[in-house]
Structures are given as structure tokens and as C-alpha cells.
Amino acid sequence: MAFKHKHLLGIQTLGPSDITTVLDTAESFYDISTRKIKKVPLLRGKTIINLFFEPSTRTLSSFELAAKRLSADIISLNKQSSSVIKGESLKDTIKNLEAMNPDSLIIRHSAAGVPYFATTFCQLHIINAGDGAHEHPTQALLDALTIRQKKKSFKDLKVLIVGDILHSRVARSNIFLLKKMGARVVLVGPPSLLPAEFKKFGAEIDYNFDRAIKKADVIMMLRIQLERQEKNYFPSIREYKNLYGLTEKRFRRAKKNAIIMHPGPINRGVEISADMADSAKSVILKQVKNGITTRMAVLYLLLGGKEREAIN
Ligand code: CP
What we know:
By secondary structure, the chain is an alpha/beta fold.
């Protein structure tokens, strides 16, 4: 099991064997969360700090639970409860936290590149929990675990990523990962939210959802990220929903065994209808569940727990 990285800043810097190592490690941790005592001592004595400058439900709580299930100590800070609002700089904040001698910082920030910036002056293991519209590597890894569990292999799968591609770090990390693992990635959305330059990542582009969804194996829906939009990218939510919303009628064009994914948070009735989000084809809550084991794997591989046998 080789994973020779100090940080997890993005999927771009990982190879297919790194990705497979994370997924295999996550699988090996799977049953810990179902035990009566959901805890193993693999990271006992390690200290982790969650530093979140943007809101989060899934990523923040699953990193906390992942650390606790591995017996690490973890605390979480958000922008409102930190001295950033009193004018302290990001660099000073990180240097002060480093002075408390933790082992790792997990950073979410609205600006692309902040986790990388931290590595230029901080010696801790840095994990990117989402930086602007750049990358969200643990989301792509947990998505990959979910796809592998359902489809066995990535080779030649037709994966649609639908919606606000322009502002989506989830889309970028998933494109990088899925292309590295041999899947076919088709991006779908209105031209204003799907620039042609995404082709350079090896993805195909289709502005017509009804056409693109034919024979799809995986349909990954994305939220419209209104908080990152500085202008109107489409005339109305109603028009967006008509052209790019996932409805039962549209879903019938996909393969019979196609699965529906969404990183969350979902906007029911906009990019996905409520009945599709809750249908038997939806693996949205499975993704959330996989978030814990995937983040346990990432923490374990980076922080170098040595007592592997102790989980058995
Ligand atoms: N998918 C995701 O990153 O969700 P949160 O913003 O709730 O962490």
C-alpha cells in the first residue's frame, strides 16, 4: 500500500494507483462504522484541526467523525468563531494554529489555492476540503468509491456531470479522477455555465441534456452555485429546470441500471426533482456514508497510522 504524499491538495497530483489505494483503504475501514464501538486506535495521539471559512454540513462533520473513529483528536474552527473577523490574516491564523503543534490542517476556503498557499509556510499535513471553484478532492474520492461499489470498474463508463460546471470544484475533481480511471466524462449544462475550454481536460461537452443522457451509466447532478455567480447565467430557474433538471421522464433515457448522484446540498425541484432524489436509483445518501470511510482512509494514509492490524 504505497501512498507517498504529504498533503492532499487535489486529484490532479494523484495517479491511478494512489486513487485505488485510497478506495481500497476506505473499503477496509467500512465495517468500523457499523460496529457497536465505532472506534479503532490507528491515529491515537494525532491532532487534527478543521479550518472552515465556508459553510459545510457533509465535509466538516464527516472529517470530524472520520478522525474520531480513528481515535485522533480533532477540533473545528469556522470563520465566525475565529479571530479572522477581528482582522487577523489567513497566514497568521494558520501559523498560530501550527504553533499549537497539531499534525494536520483540513482547510475549506472560498479562494482557490488557499490549501496550497498553506503548504508554502506551514509544515503540517494539509488537506483541501474545497477551495473556491478549484478542487474538492475528498468529494471526488468518495464519489469514486460509490461508483466502484455500484459499477465495479470505471473503464468506459459513461458518466454525465450536469449543471453549473463553471463554478464547481466537485466537477473539476471528478473530471480529473474519472479520466485518470478510464471513464468517459460528458459535461452537460447551459453554455454560459459550461465553457468549451473544459474539453482540454478530456471531457466531452453536450448542451442538450435529453441527448446526452441516452445510455448514461452515472448521472451526477450539480447545484447552481448562486453564491459564486456575479451575474445572471440563465434567464430563470424555471427555464433552467426545464432544460437541465433531472426528472423521471428524462431519466428513462439513461441505461436501466443507471445511478443518480449529487454531492449535496441539493435544491429539490431545481436541478433534481424530489422523486428522483429519493428514488431507488439515487445513491446520494450512500455518497454521504462513503464520505466517512473515504476521509478515514485519507487521514490514515497521510498521517501514517502504524497499527494497521489493530482494526481487526
Ligand atoms: N458536498 C459538500 O461538500 O457538502 P458540504 O458543503 O455540506 O460539505
